[in-house]
Each structure stands twice: as C-alpha cells, then as structure tokens.
Design brief:
single chain; alpha+beta; 15% helix; elongated
Length: 62
C-alpha cells in the first residue's frame, strides 16, 4: 500500500491512479489508508488502474 504522505492531491481524491499517477478512466479499489493533514486524520480510499497498471503488477504497463 502506498504511503499517503507521498501521494499527490489527485491520487488522494481518486482522480489519478495511486500507483502510476495516470488519470483514471477504468478503476478498481486498492484499499483504504489513514492520511493526516495538520491535526486532521481521515480515511482515504485509494484507486488504481483497471486492469492493474504496470506499477502494481511488476510489468512495464505496455
């Protein structure tokens, strides 16, 4: 599971893949993480490419 502190805003919001940063067209849920910003902690769903992108399965994504 990616460290939420290393993800971009669009990745945390579910617009971009949590693994490869590509814009999501078809997606699947990777899981939920807790992300803290300042004094606020919230649960964030992380979404990834479907089929799973190269960053998730070890392939080159091509």
């Amino acid at each position: 599971m990616p460290d939420p502190d290393t993800l971009t805003g669009p990745q945390l919001e579910g617009w971009d893949c949590a693994l490869c940063e590509r814009r999501l067209v078809a997606d699947q849920l990777l899981g939920t993480v807790e992300w803290t910003c300042g004094s606020r902690t919230r649960k964030v769903e992380l979404w990834v490419c479907r089929p799973l992108c190269g960053d998730g399965d070890g392939s080159d994504g091509a």
